Amino acid sequence: MNQLEICFSPELIHLHDLEGKIVVVVDIFRATSTMIAALANGIEEIQTFADLESCRSMREKGYLIAGERNGKTVEGFDLGNSPVAFLEEYYGGKKLAMTTTNGTLAISKSQSADEILIGAFPNFSATIRYIQAQQKDVLIHCAGWKGRFNLEDSLYAGALAKALESTHSSDDDGALSMKTLFEKEGHQLKQYLSKASHAKRLQNQGIEKDIDFCLTLDLYDLVGKVVNDRVRPISF
Amino acid sequence: MNQLEICFSPELIHLHDLEGKIVVVVDIFRATSTMIAALANGIEEIQTFADLESCRSMREKGYLIAGERNGKTVEGFDLGNSPVAFLEEYYGGKKLAMTTTNGTLAISKSQSADEILIGAFPNFSATIRYIQAQQKDVLIHCAGWKGRFNLEDSLYAGALAKALESTHSSDDDGALSMKTLFEKEGHQLKQYLSKASHAKRLQNQGIEKDIDFCLTLDLYDLVGKVVNDRVRPISF
Lengths: 236, 236
Description:
The structure is a homodimer. The first copy, chain A, is α/β, with parallel strands linked by helices.
């Protein structure tokens, strides 16, 4: 059996050894969900940036640029951070630059891993299948919220830990607790997560459709992987 | 309503503002449980030390010294880190110096709080009553295990968050998830925690009696509070 562990925040990732492992970076609301939506709708590669200006400068290189502040698309940007916006059009062959603070940090702090995947509910089963074909240890790296534990990322981690039980054991307390939480609340994920702090922030911004999308399982049969600092769809 | 939040590790405490709050430091297996056992059996104050030698030097000042390495009492020390050892004798008026790495760190990183309490199951209800008499915000600071999330401290935090629901609300994801976990597993705490990583380590050391003690509710009607870097029993 391979091993599985969960890290609840980029602020704790230095306590884990990533070498030889598949790290699944997860930022459910909404960075990694938006990435999967983008890849599923034709985007061929994504670069992430912590700040707006670096992201904006990618336009000169022919990238679509996506960024949001306070719930609104940044002036002059093509898209915000909404995953459902990517569903309205097909972006075949286009490249995307997007800003995300928590997500970018989690990806950059996962560099010593053997492979980095992008975790989201809309491609949940595809990610499971990919991982089970690799036979490597797994660490789920929750992007969290400004360094703190957050519920949606941690519950995804619990769901993944549970789905991988037949191939990946765990003596990690984080995995044990989140598997239990997912067993109890997984059947009413949206209802439970509506109590979570970040979902409340999102609801205040009126983006209910994004929340629904981010919590929908298995819309897409693709895996997002970080290759040379870019997120790409991979076939396997 | 006052607010309540949970911090899962001393490595994350810098993300929280402690000012004006009651911080409850918790290291269930076994530092804070041992402190409560010691206070309940006559010890009038406890100083904690991260290293053995500083602890040993307190003997000259008339302190009892308690320390353990690899499951055994350190040579020349009066006691180990076992809470049940304190139940065998009455230590009226004595002072205690003890070593604990995770616990000492959590206490020292809580200094900016208005009050620091010592959390343990054997004085659970007394701590609840004390907190509810103060009308302050609460942060539960889990000592964790080498910086990582651990199950027993987090479940205690969930139990406390749940017991304080009538006076302390929370929009903190950590509190929400641990309350849920305690609702699901609280009725079989020992059985559930036997799967946890640190409980497994302790079981390997043959200290089943310590585990039982650490998970027993309301043996004592006292509160442990840190005053001038010393843990003391307080009346209220």
